[in-house]
Specification:
- By secondary structure, the protein is an alpha/beta fold.
- The protein has helices at residues 15-33, 46-52, 60-65, 83-89, 91-97, 159-175, 192-204, 217-226, 238-251, 292-304, 308-323, 335-348, and strands at 3-11, 36-41, 69-74, 102-108, 123-129, 133-142, 150-156, 179-184, 211-216, 233-236, 259-263, 271-275.
- The longest helix is centred in the first third of the chain and has 19 residues, at 15-33.
- The two termini are 23 Å apart.
- The mean pLDDT is 97.
- Bound molecules: nicotinamide-adenine-dinucleotide (NAD), 3-isopropylmalic acid (IPM) and manganese (II) ion (MN).
């Protein structure tokens, strides 16, 4: 029997609840589909940091390298560990080290879910650059605490990095409805974003079948709310993609629905699957986190691992559950209730 080796990193807050839920669903579908999923759990988190002084061991990246994929819950417990320490100690280094440059974030309104726009048929795919740009980590502070203090945070855009993500966006658009929105702020940012616009134009000649439009990110944000049906695939830089995907999550009914795949398209290292949301300290420990985003991310993981039928079965179960009104209202149904309903839908097929 085919066995996929998965590294499980529940992380902080609701991260454990949602990864437990997704794992139960994944195990069910694996058993029913005739393949095996073998997990190794890593306790890397803010609690781990408090015990060891590190978010993951020094050889953490090398340890993860031998897995077929990584499933992650959420990282961050800002009351005890600054986000700048926790995220730069665990999540962001994994994305970079494993060249997971394509962050795929689908936004669809599932049946029965009341999004704030009541945008029926809302279906956008956001492709976010995931390894450079505004998240380069380059910069510094001088004269800390003084009146003349200066903080510099340098965005780094490389031709290789920009080309590969825009090309990825074109490919995704070609496989969907043939429309690509390339997002910049080239009216204000005259180097990196003009560079991005130029590369979009250059690549467009290779994809005559894709209708590409360049938008400024502010206008695109408004368009996502006012005319979401005019959009298909969006390709954006790291920070713009981050912001637009929380907006996409809101339109699809909340952060509990938004899935995310950090893909290494060359398959030279494992890809990582996680919800768009964070550790949600405000609801942690209450048992009411919506696990659908992580279950959906788990389906994206199966798809990436070549288990297309199993992934499709999960993606049929989720709307079957929401259509019954289960999991559609934040806080109404427990994590366990929603998980059990997804498993029941899978086994009822
Ligand atoms: P958040 O996504 O954790 O929470 C924002 C809001 O959405 C909260 O009201 C929360 O209750 C709600 N929410 C999130 N997930 C939900 C779910 N599954 N079901 C129901 N409601 C849900 O964002 P935040 O509060 O800005 O961040 C909290 C911590 O998580 C911070 O440390 C932040 O840096 C970190 N974070 C981590 C990741 C990640 O690991 N990928 C992503 C985002 C934020
Ligand atoms: C996300 C998160 C992360 C990001 C944070 C926690 C660093 O918001 O995955 O969307 O900005 O990439
Ligand atoms: Mn985010």
């Amino acid at each position: 029997m085919k066995t996929h080796k998965i590294a499980l990193i529940p992380g902080d807050g609701i991260g454990r609840d949602v990864t437990d839920a997704a794992w139960a669903v994944l195990q069910t579908v694996a058993t029913n589909s005739g393949f095996a999923l073998e997990s190794t759990q890593f306790p890397w988190s803010c609690a781990f940091y408090k015990q060891t002084g590190r978010m993951m061991p020094e050889d953490g990246i090398e340890t993860l390298r031998s897995f077929d994929a990584i499933l992650l819950g959420a990282v961050g417990w800002p009351a005890e560990v600054p986000d700048s320490v926790s995220l730069h100690g665990l999540l962001l280094p994994i994305r970079k080290a494993f060249v997971q440059y394509a962050n795929i974030r689908p936004h669809r309104l599932l049946p029965g879910v009341q999004g704030p726009l009541k945008a029926e048929g809302f279906d956008i795919l956001c492709i976010r650059e995931n390894t450079e740009g505004e998240y380069s980590g380059a910069g510094g502070r001088v004269h800390q605490g003084m009146d003349n203090e200066v903080a510099v945070e340098t965005s780094i855009f490389t031709r290789k990095g920009v080309e590969r993500i825009i090309r990825f966006g074109f490919e995704q658009a070609r496989a969907r409805r043939g429309k690509l929105a390339s997002v910049t702020k080239s009216n204000a940012q005259k180097y990196s974003m003009v560079f991005w616009d130029e590369i979009t134009k250059q690549l467009a000649t290779e994809y005559p079948d894709v209708e590409v439009t360049s938008y400024h990110v502010d206008a695109l944000a408004a368009r996502m709310v006012m005319a979401p049906e005019s959009l298909d695939v969006i390709v954006a830089s790291n920070l713009f993609g981050d912001i637009l995907t929380d907006l996409g999550a809101a339109i699809q009914g909340g952060l509990g629905f938004a899935a995310s795949a950090n893909i290494n398209p060359d398959r030279s290292a494992p890809s990582m699957f996680e919800p768009v949301h964070g550790s949600a300290p405000d609801i942690a420990g209450k048992g009411i986190a919506n696990p659908m985003a992580t279950i959906w991310s788990g389906a994206m993981m199966l798809d990436h691992l070549g288990e297309r039928d199993a992934a499709a079965r999960i993606m049929e179960a989720l709307p079957a559950v929401t259509a019954k009104g289960i999991g559609t209202t934040p806080g109404k149904d427990s994590t366990d209730t929603i998980t059990a309903a997804v498993i029941a839908a899978l086994t009822a097929e």
